[in-house]
Structures are given as structure tokens and as C-alpha cells.
Write a structure and sequence with these properties.
One of its GO terms (biological process) is DNA-templated transcription. This is Transcriptional regulator family: Fungal Specific TF. InterPro entries: Amide_Lactam_Regulators (IPR052073), XnlR_reg_dom (IPR007219). Keywords: DNA-binding, Nucleus, Transcription, Transcription regulation, Zinc. GO terms for molecular function: DNA binding; zinc ion binding. The protein is mostly helical. It has 10 helices and no strands. It is globular and about 60 Å long.
Length: about 260
């Protein structure tokens, strides 16, 4: 299966750097230290590498690197992503990824890809599968010695934020109920860009509650909606204002349904 082949270094290395510099600090789905410190190149998950490239390929800086083979032609971003995505979907359906944590990360990254009239439904399904796998291994439960800085804690809360995002986009119920979560949410004040993403997702969770079938006739959050500057605070050294600012602006009640 072509999806099992590694992308050429001239593709995966620059795209991996784009991903970690522009995406992962906001949504830390991948433990960069563990990923980059792997001694043997062949021991890295080829599917995780491809999923990272799938996300990074949408950035304009990736355009000069979008080749599927060393001697392959340069592809448009949409064609490149379609080929990568189809291979990943087939690989996940065939259970070719044996590392469960890598599988969770791959599925979560796939949920960030949406193409075609069924794209949103497929993306939501990938996230659902990632959350199911995460609950199976107990990422939502506390463990001795585990702190908010633990990559697996961050991975879980990334899934939590993506759950809120997909629920709002697709008009679906959220999958993760807060009452079933046994770990504390990281302090948004000390988490940099991820903290801002998490804080905005908290707002989104509140907004979603206004639109549940069981909600009353309240008109929503009319006053006191936090400004983006209030969420960012004074420490904004690694905050992507363009991306997070748009995400925050879209959270006001009435913008989703």
C-alpha cells in the first residue's frame, strides 16, 4: 500500500517544520520532543508523519515541497492532500497503525482535513474515533505523577477542544462530557498559544449550551463576553493573533446555527 511508504525527505522535513512552527504550539497533538528525538528514522510512525504533512500542506510555505516521491512532480495542495488523506483513511480502516497513541494523533490530525460534500462528516467521524481510542486507554483519567505539562494530558485537552469545534461546525452534540473527565484542565494563563486556544474553546462550550435542545428560552450571552485581549493577557509571545483572533470572533452566540 502506497500509504505505508515514507514521503521523501524533501517533502516531510520542511512540512514537519511548518507543522511544529505554525500549528502544534496552538493545538499540541504531537509531542515534538518525542517525535524529533526518535533515533531510528524507521521507528517513527509513517502514518503520523503523513498526517502531519496533511495538515502542514495547507500552508502557503509548503507549496514548493508537495511531492509524493523523490522524482515525482510538484502537486497542487489540494491534490497532494487528497492523495495523502485517501491513503491514511485506508490505513486507519485496515488497522495498520499498531501504536494506539499514534493512531489517536493520526485520527485527530485527519479531523482537521475537510474536503468534498461529505468532508465535514468524515472529519467528525475521525475525531469520534480518536476520542473513543483516547477513552479506551484512559487519557481522561488521572494518573499518579501526571501534570498539566504531560504531553498526554495536552493531547486529551486538544481532543476536548476539537470536540467543541466540530460540534459547533456540524451542529452535533459534544462527545466529551465534563462530568466524566478525571483530570484537571491546564491553567490557560501559563500555556501560551495553547492556553488561548483552550480558553476560547471554554467560551465555545458555554455558547453551545445555549443551543442544546434542553436549553431554555434564554437569548444567550448578551453582555460580558470576554474580549480577545482579555483572554490573551500580557504574555502573548507565542500567540498567533490572526488564527486565534478569528477563532475567538466566531464564538459569539448566534454565529453557529
Amino acid at each position: 500500500m502506497r500509504a505505508c511508504d515514507r514521503l521523501p525527505p524533501t517533502t516531510r522535513e520542511p512540512l514537519t517544520e511548518i507543522y511544529f512552527s505554525k500549528v502544534n504550539h496552538i493545538i499540541p497533538l504531537v509531542d515534538r520532543e518525542a517525535f524529533t528525538s526518535t533515533l531510528a528514522e524507521n521507528s517513527k510512525s509513517v502514518f503520523l508523519e503523513r498526517a502531519i504533512c496533511l495538515v502542514a500542506a495547507k500552508d502557503r510555505d509548503a507549496r514548493p515541497h508537495l511531492r509524493l516521491a523523490v522524482d515525482g512532480s510538484l502537486l497542487p495542495a489540494r491534490e497532494f492532500c487528497s492523495e495523502i488523506y485517501k491513503g491514511l483513511a485506508a490505513a486507519m480502516d485496515a488497522d495498520l497503525e499498531t501504536d494506539r497513541l499514534a493512531r489517536i494523533r493520526v485520527l485527530a490530525l485527519m479531523s482537521l482535513h475537510c474536503e468534498g460534500y461529505e468532508g465535514a462528516e468524515a472529519a467528525s467521524l475521525h475525531l469520534c474515533q480518536a476520542i473513543h481510542q483516547a477513552q479506551t486507554v484512559g487519557l481522561h483519567l488521572d494518573r499518579p505523577g501526571r501534570t498539566s505539562a504531560d504531553p498526554l494530558v495536552k493531547l486529551f485537552w486538544c481532543l476536548w477542544t476539537l470536540d467543541k469545534m466540530h460540534a459547533s461546525i456540524g451542529g452535533r452534540p459534544v462527545l466529551l462530557a465534563d462530568r466524566d473527565i478525571g483530570i484537571e484542565k491546564p491553567d490557560t494563563k501559563i500555556q501560551g498559544a495553547f492556553g488561548v486556544w483552550l480558553a476560547i474553546s471554554d467560551l465555545l462550550a458555554t455558547v453551545i449550551s445555549f443551543y442544546r435542545p434542553s436549553a431554555g428560552t434564554t437569548s444567550g450571552w448578551e453582555e460580558g463576553f470576554p474580549a480577545f485581549e482579555d483572554i490573551v493577557g500580557d504574555d502573548a509571545h507565542d500567540v498567533d493573533f490572526a488564527s486565534l483572533g478569528v477563532f475567538h470572533a466566531s464564538q459569539r452566540p448566534g454565529r453557529f446555527y
